[in-house]
Amino acid sequence: MIVNATPNGWEIIYHRAHALLAAQLGGQWRSQDAPIRFYETLAAISHHDDLEKEWEEDLITEAGAPKDFTLATKKDAEIGISKLDDLAKNARYRGRWVALLISMHISRLNEPSRGNFAELDKILDEQLQNQQRWRKELGIKKEEVDAAYAFMQWCDRLSLILCQQELPEDERFLEISKGPDGQRYDIMQRSDRSVIVKPWPFQEKQFTVKVEACELFQTEFESSAELSQALQSAPIKEVEWIFVKS
């Protein structure tokens, strides 16, 4: 989960909600430059974090605060290995294209940890084999797949910038990443709170995206069970951003 401090407690955004926001952003991309198999690609984006089941995990830090996903420990990583396998297998039920993109996402995030766990190495080897097989079966060139995955990464990164409240102050630009066209894109929030992206990659000149967040008015918790219960009953707010072409 994504955890942001507030004056009175915490704002919690579930990873699946962040993934849905990423798909919303991707759906706004200019149609003439959209990646191949566009709607299937959006499905992959919206489901790429389905392995995250915050309600089943160790949710708090040693200090009793909600644990942001960036604070994952080695133990968390070990527990998460079996979830990677489940994510890869479950994606197959949405089709080979969705499975291919999610498999590439698993590879990108976890290849740096190759050699740390034998079980992880086995899963990573399987992903590389699957990716090669699915590209061949689908008859799609590697560069087309790479462009679609770059699009997926771009949407994921932009969603995280928004959810983690990383937009700089004072109308300063922040790099998002390179898009599927190899072009670098930057984001900036103006003084009126509207958001611009340069160069503008979207179909419409203005649009709004939203994500749901839980509001907690308690700073510390005795256990993950207590936090989980608090999240179930917490008020929910919509956080929105208005994108405007400059």
Could you characterize what this model shows?
There is one protein chain. The chain is of the alpha+beta class and 246 residues long. The protein has one domain (2-244). The protein contains seven helices and seven strands. The strands form two sheets. It has a four-stranded antiparallel beta sheet with strand order 1-2-6-7. The longest helix is centred in the middle third of the chain and has 22 residues, at 142-163.
Q: List how many beta strands DSSP finds.
A: 7
Instruction: Give, in spatial order, the strands making up the sheet with the most strands.
Output: 1-2-6-7
The H-and-E topology, N to C, reads as EEHHHHHHEEEEHE
Amount of helix? 40-55%
Tag the structure with descriptive keywords.
246 residues, alpha+beta, 3-stranded antiparallel β-sheet, 7 strands, globular
Write the layout of secondary structure elements.
Layout: E1 2-6, E2 9-13, H1 15-27, H2 38-47, H3 74-91, H4 96-110, H5 118-138, H6 142-163, E3 174-178, E4 184-189, E5 195-198, E6 206-216, H7 224-233, E7 236-244
Antiparallel strand pairs: 1-2, 2-6, 3-4, 4-5, 6-7
Q: Summary?
A:
This protein is of the alpha+beta class and 246 residues long. The chain is 44% helix and 18% strand.
